[in-house]
């Protein structure tokens, strides 16, 4: 019996369509069609979530599993069903959910979440990491570069130093150690989604030269992971953040055409919000243009891209909404308008502000670009419409824009100054980067 294989926080990217073996371990062939954004014959949706409420989202009532498996092209699951407490015995909650999703739709492809800096939240992984202090990142003065320093009797959480070859090998193969056998891993795990794949570790006081060595080590580890999953089942490796527009000028090693030489997909986490907007909530034209171009270039070069968009001019801090036993998370909003205080208000805001994310997505999309739209990273934060009696961050039914016939684009988007337009068979899309409120989709 092999040692049990595991998941970091856990990300599951579930893909409904075909998943051919990657080309040279780097190009993605995961593709959607243009029938609609999300309907019975197609899905352009890709989530990134776990859940915070095991009483509502559990394995005794699988309404949420069925909804996810039938609605998404890709879905990322973070901590779920007690996976954060997993210690190597029994079955990790993410394995359980993966099996349930596959039972609903055997064609689903599942990637598991990993973090290149903090590794994982569960004891199974952290115990291994803490037993190798030579893998802990050190500041230039030799002190430990803590991801989270010791506090209140809790042990500190080191940062992984991927400039160490042994750490690269461990990291690249760690996800597989959650499974009972090679065959089980092949069936339930189709790749990994690596967070914090960026150039610099913000918490570390290290030189630019050492930052480059660590980044090179990250790329080596992701390359090894890509080779592992290409051989296992033709799976993929996706990295975040390699397309974030605000970081590209500052990080010479991280661009779509350098980092993606090592793996075949990217996750864009700040599409139209956070660091791609100004303090007043308007879009930063320069950064949004750079973001558009990176997504277009990466996907046209054959890489998968998942765009995560938040409702409105989202920024930190994040807040709770809902009732004591049924809370969900929402972001704050930059600018003069504040996020609503009620569940109904947040649901209405998510629906009303959808066009500010969906229109830019359609401007940059090709068959390899997928959309994630929610307030934060738990399933209750707006990834699916919840059943009666459950409070979530989106309305109780799917956005009508998702099921409208779309049809193929007539060609790439056209640009005139800050205005971008694009024609589809059944829709005309308009985006002005100087005015997010002017975003428009005219259905016909």
Short overview:
This protein has 11 helices and 14 strands. The chain has 444 residues and is an alpha/beta fold. Strand 11 (414-416) and strand 12 form a beta hairpin.
Q: How much helix is in the residues?
A: 25-40%
> Number of helical segments?
11
Helix/strand order, N-terminal first:
EEHHEHHHEHEHEHEEEHHEHEEEE
Beta strand count:
14
Compute the separation of the termini in Å. Answer: 58 Å
Query: How are strands sequenced across the largest beta sheet?
Result: 3-4-5-6-7-10
Q: If you average the pLDDT, what whole number results?
A: 88
Tell me the radius of gyration: 21 Å
**What is the approximate shape?**
globular
Structural class: alpha/beta
Low-pLDDT stretches are 1-25
Largest sheet: 6 strands, parallel
Description:
With 444 residues, the chain is α/β, with parallel strands linked by helices. It is built from eleven helices and 14 strands. It has helices at residues 63-71, 93-104, 123-130, 165-173, 182-188, 208-233, 256-259, 285-300, 343-352, 355-364, 400-403, and strands at residues 38-39, 42-43, 112-115, 191-195, 236-239, 265-268, 304-309, 314-323, 326-333, 369-373, 414-416, 419-424, 427-432, 435-443. A six-stranded parallel sheet has the order 3-4-5-6-7-10. Helix 1 (63-71) crosses helix 2 (93-104) and helix 4 runs parallel beside helix 6 (208-233). The longest helix is centred in the middle third of the chain and has 26 residues, at 208-233. It starts with 37 loop residues before the first strand and ends with a strand. 50% of the residues are buried. The model is unreliable at 1-25 (pLDDT under 50).
